[in-house]
Amino acid sequence: MNTDAMPDLVIQAKQLSRHFGELKAIDKLDLNIDKNRIYGFLGPNGCGKTTAIRMLTGLLKPTSGEIQVLGLSLPKDAEKLRLRMGYMTQKFSLYNDLTVKENLQFIAKIYGISGTAQKSRIDELLSIYGLNQKQQQLAASMSGGQRQRLALAAATLHKPDLLFLDEPTSAVDPENRREFWEQLFDLCDQGTSILVSTHYMDEAERCHKLAILEDGVKRADGTPEQLMNNIAAHVVEIEAEGLRHLKQQLVTLPDIVTAAQLGARLRVLIKNTVSDPIGFLEHHTDIESNKFTIVRPSLEDVFIACTGSSRQ
C-alpha cells in the first residue's frame, strides 16, 4: 500500500478481514483516518469494533488485507508501533492492588521513562486528570469515573501519536462521559490522533468522522453531518392518539424503515424512494396532514437506516 500520496492519514486499511472459523468478524474493511482527528467506530456489541481495533494496534493478525498505521506496516512493524500508540481497553486493565501513583510508575517503567522525566510526567498527568488527591489510593477502591481518568492517564503517559479507545465510557455516568470527551478534544488539539469505539449515539456525534459497523461490515462513513444529510430515508414525526396501534400498523408497510415512539410523538423513517412522505402517510392512515411534521434526521436515524436494526 502506497502512503506517499496521503501523508496526513494516520491509518489506512484496505480490504481488511478477520475470520474466526465460519464467522466473519471483520469483512473487507476499508479505512482512511485523518491525522489530528477523532474517528469513531459506531455499532452494537458484537459488530466487530474490538476486532478491528485489535488488528489496527497489531495485537491481532488479519486473515487478509493491508494495514498502514503511522506509516508502519502491520502486523510486521507491530513492535515499533507499540511505542507510538496508546490503547485503553473497555475493561479496566491496570492493577487494582496498586495505588494510582504506583500504576503510573509501573507504566512509565514499561516505556523506559525514569528519574526526573518520570516524576515530571506523572505529576503533570495527576494534575490534568484531577488525581492529585487520589495518588495514594488503591485503584480497586476508585469510582468508575476516577478509574477511567487513571486509565486515560496511563494510556497517554508516553505521549503517543495515536490513541485507541475501545468503548472507554461504558461504565461511567453522563457527567463523567462529557468531561472525558473534553479531555479527548484537548489531546486532539495537542496533536494526538484518536480512534474511539462506542455504542452511544451522542458520543458518535462528537467525532470528526465515524464509521457505522454491522456484522463486521462498514455500512457508512463520513462526518456526522454528512451521514445525517445523506440518509436514505425521510423522517416524519406524528402527534396523534393511539400511537401504539399506529406503530403496529405502519411497520407492516414495506416502505417504512422503522417507527419508534418518543413521548407523545411517533418518529417514522420512510424510504426515500417515496417522493411524498406526508401524502404516503395520509394515504395509509386516517390522520390529518397537520399532525405530520418532517424533521431533521438524527445519527440514531442514520444508524437504523444503515443497519438491520430496522424494526422496533
Q: Mind explaining what this structure looks like?
A:
With 312 residues, the chain is of the alpha/beta class. It folds into two domains: 9-228, 3-Layer(aba) Sandwich (Rossmann fold); 232-296, 2-Layer Sandwich (Alpha-Beta Plaits), CATH 3.30.70. It contains eleven helices and 14 strands. The protein has a six-stranded mixed β-sheet with strand order 6-7-8-3-9-10, with helices on both faces. Strand 1 and strand 2 (23-34) form a beta hairpin. Helix 3 packs across helix 4. The longest helix is centred in the middle third of the chain and has 16 residues, at 174-189. The chain is elongated, with a radius of gyration of 23 Å.
Topology:
Blueprint: E1 9-20, E2 23-34, E3 38-42, H1 49-56, E4 64-69, E5 72-74, H2 78-82, E6 85-88, H3 100-110, H4 115-128, H5 144-155, E7 162-166, H6 174-189, E8 193-198, H7 201-206, E9 209-214, E10 217-222, H8 224-229, E11 233-238, H9 243-250, E12 256-262, E13 265-271, H10 277-284, E14 292-294, H11 299-306
Parallel strand pairs: 3-8, 3-9, 6-7, 7-8
Antiparallel strand pairs: 1-2, 1-4, 4-5, 9-10, 11-13, 11-14, 12-13
Pfam family, one: ABC_tran
Domain ABC transporter: 11-240
Keywords: ATP-binding, Nucleotide-binding, Transport
